[in-house]
């Protein structure tokens, strides 16, 4: 299986995991494209292009490395809540006033496609 097909299958699995129902290919591609667009607009400056916390804007304490075991072992519901509500005593703002629940799910689905 070539790497492009494998990437698409992994993306579909990530969306299925977050949304809870099997997506069709067209809706999965739209969801990932929207998640990528939103990530680049709102998250990239802090979390970096691959989510490793190496964005241009740095904080103390540092932002989360979204590819780390600490993050990946959390249930998706907890990750969604972190995006929605923010994280106290960190630079992570609440995004509930800027992003819909669907948009937050799309961002998480995109994040879950990052290389580990």
Strand content: under 5%
- The radius of gyration is 14 Å
- The tally of beta strands, per DSSP, is 0
- The CATH architecture designation is Orthogonal Bundle
Silhouette: globular
Going by helix content, strand content and strand pairing, the class is mainly alpha
Which helices and strands appear, and what pairs or packs with what?
Blueprint lengths: L2 H17 L5 H18 L1 H4 L21 H4 L3 H10 L15 H11 L5
Helix pairs in contact: 1-6, 2-6, 5-6
Features:
mainly alpha; Cytochrome Bc1 Complex, Chain D, domain 2; 6 helices
Task: Please tell me about this protein's structure.
With 116 residues, this protein is mostly helical. It has a single domain (3-111), classed as Orthogonal Bundle (Cytochrome Bc1 Complex, Chain D, domain 2). It has helices spanning 3-19, 25-42, 44-47, 69-72, 76-85, 101-111. Helix 1 (3-19) runs antiparallel to helix 6, helix 2 crosses helix 6 (101-111) and helix 5 (76-85) crosses helix 6 (101-111). The longest helix has 18 residues, at 25-42. It is globular and about 40 Å long. The two termini are 19 Å apart. The model has no long low-confidence stretch (mean pLDDT 85).
